[in-house]
Amino acid sequence: MSGLGVAACGGTAGSTVADQAGAAPAAAPQSRTAGAAITAGQVSEPVAAAPSPPGKPLAGKVIVIDPGHNGGNYKHPEVINKQVNVLTKRKPCDTTGTATNDGYSEAAFTWDVSTRLAKVLRAEGATVKLTRKNNTSVGPCITQRAAIGNQAKADAAISIHGDGAPASGHGFHIIMPKKIDGPVDPVVNDSRKLGIAVRNAFRAGTGQAYSTYIGKNALDFRNDLGGLNLSSVPKVFIEVGNMRNAGDAARMKSATFRQQAADSLAKGVTNYLS
User: Fold this and answer.
1) Is beta strand 83-85 parallel, antiparallel or unpaired with respect to 90-92?
2) Is the model's pLDDT at 21 over the cut of 80?
3) pLDDT tier, 29 (very low <50, low <70, confident <90, very high otherwise)
4) What angle, rounded to 10 degrees, do the helices at 255-273 and 188-206 form?
5) With contact defined as beta carbons under 8 Å apart, do 162 and 106 qualify?
6) DSSP string computed for the chain
7) Per DSSP, what are the bridge partners of residue 91?
8) What pLDDT sits at residue 204?
């Protein structure tokens, strides 16, 4: 996420490119933003951890998954272009996200991986909340996405994206918060631990290379993302790959890779919480 577009391009679980009718067109790369409150996926009440069978590694844990963007965003610029306060600056409420060159949207990709990830985590005993309920609605804004994790008192939160960088770059990276004299400050160190655990598990489980174009050893620290700045719980972003790079795009369109991604992310979160 280098100020180049980072958005996700997914669909419903198990979908392929052929499933993407009605998805946002493959727009130019867009910068990663996250914003405040709109329609879909909003939560205002804390999420209590549901009782889990004994022996489950994530029993009693609450995890929030944030599938980047939403499939209906491109239809409603009047909503997603509204400016919201992320403490270090003002940004659009959200963006449409990016897409592969043949039109597989980031929003569809993130939804697919997120629903797969939720299934794995629930099987391990976790209580899981997603920040949006489908891939057809608008939003919520980046500020509300952070609020959902805070209100849930999540033990860990992860925002899933696909990047829209120049086609020459490839690989994945983890984005972690910096201290900004704001609500994220007390969880910056724990977010770093979460990020490293996710990075290690993701590399081991998918074989995806570290990013060649941003960060160091697939780690990037930022203070301009509302989803991180406003989080009072440990939270990271993952840019699973560069959707404008042919090799990354081919993997991200593969249902097999998306399941590997979900399994690996679950392993990273579990390692962090263990």
Assistant:
1) antiparallel
2) no
3) very low
4) 140
5) yes
6) --SSEE--B--STT--GGG-TTPPP-PPP-B---BB--STT---S--PPPP--TT-TTTT-EEEEEE-S-TTGGG-HHHHTSEEE-SSSEEES-----B-TT--BHHHHHHHHHHHHHHHHHHTT-EEEES-S-SSS---BHHHHHHHHHHTT-SEEEEEEEEE--TT---BEEEEE---SSTTGGGHHHHHHHHHHHHHHHHHHH-PPBPSSSSBTTEEEES--HHHHT-SS-EEEEEEEETTSHHHHHHHT-HHHHHHHHHHHHHHHHHHH-
7) 84
8) 98
Written as six digits, the tokens of 141 are 């804004």
Residues facing residue 62 across a β-bridge: 127
- Angle in degrees, CA 103, 108, 110, rounded to 5: 125
What tens digit of pLDDT does each residue of 158-200 get?
Answer: 999 999 999 999 999 999 999 999 999 999 999 999 999 999 9
Q: Active-site residue numbers?
A: 239
pLDDT of 3 above 60: no
Task: Please tell me the distance from the alpha carbon of residue 101 to that of residue 121, in angstroms, as a whole number.
Answer: 32
CA-wise closest residue to 131 among 106, 111, 102: 111
Say what the pLDDT of residue 55 is. 82
Residue 202 pLDDT exceeds 80: yes
Which conformational region is residue 97 in: left (phi greater than 0), alpha (psi within -120 to 50 degrees), or beta?
Answer: left
Q: Within 13 Å and on the Cβ side, how many CA atoms surround 270? A: 21
How far is Cα 239 from Cα 221, in angstroms, rounded to an integer? 13
